[in-house]
């Protein structure tokens, strides 16, 4: 709070949640509450977003905190919140305000990551690990190290943009064999963005990804997950997707398949991809060999996709386009979800086809070739 005021904040509004209260709400609240957002909550979030307020979300949860909760309640509430908080989510997705998601340890999460440790010992180990992942060390200037890292990501994104890719082809030994077309004038983004008021921000700490959006109806083939996914307070693992003309026509999982398909059925656009992200296998989070059971970390250890809504900034001028204009250009502009899932492996190969017909190698043995 003090740091925010020191930086000139007009006001600092802090909201608090915990696993116990969250679980009780989903299990025991009146069923009617999952079809709408309280009017005062909607007014608060939508109004602050329109004013350009910055948002910092410090998220931590037991990865299986909502195991056993009615998935239909979660699906209904996703639909309701996207309707009632439309202004907030639109401005978030189009850089209307600066935002950042980070995580700090809580015991239930720390003990899941380090099952051999308990209590404070697990928490302390997770603190140390998080510091490493966001480049906080005892030596050197952490802020400068972070800026240098973001600059390196931006330089690699520039190389991808200069390739002018029409499509990319993913293959690995898990069975992934997927061709992903890219919309014309697509942008590869990394290292942060700039809000409409001119504030530079990085949406995720840590971040290792360079991302864009696939062409909505241009994804075909088979795709396997490489890491567990925490989805709506449940663990989903061993995912296999089949795509036809952009749509996930079949989705199975060795664990959590019902949870996965409920999310995919949120609305008519949730079975289409909204994000394609490249992360080298040889990166700090991946090299730690830790499964974090937290998408913020796990997605930055592995190449990933997201099903659901796309970031409009993934194409030139997208932040200023209407939903209809974005759909016309092949962007999955609206969906009730945006769920990242990890697909990168040590043997992943990605080859690209440029718009002038050249074939280029992008990934070899899980890593960038440039």
What's the gyration radius in Å? 20 Å
Q: Which strands sit side by side, in order, in the main sheet?
A: 12-11-8-4-3-16-17-18
How many β-strand stretches? 18
How many helices in DSSP terms? 12
* Amino-to-carboxy terminus distance: 42 Å
Beta percentage is 15-25%
What is the makeup of the main sheet? 8 strands, antiparallel
Please give the share of residues in helix: 25-40%
Low-pLDDT ranges? none
Structural class given helices, strands, pairing?
Answer: alpha+beta
Shape: globular
What order do the SSEs take from the amino end to the carboxyl end, as H and E? Answer: HHHEHHEHHHEEEEEEEEEEHEHHEHEEEE
Explain this structure to me?
With 370 residues, this protein is an alpha+beta fold. 31% of the residues lie in helices and 22% in strands. The chain has an eight-stranded antiparallel beta sheet. A four-stranded antiparallel beta sheet has the order 7-13-14-15. Strands 1-2 form a two-stranded parallel sheet. Strand 16 and strand 17 (359-364) form a beta hairpin. The protein is globular and about 55 Å long.
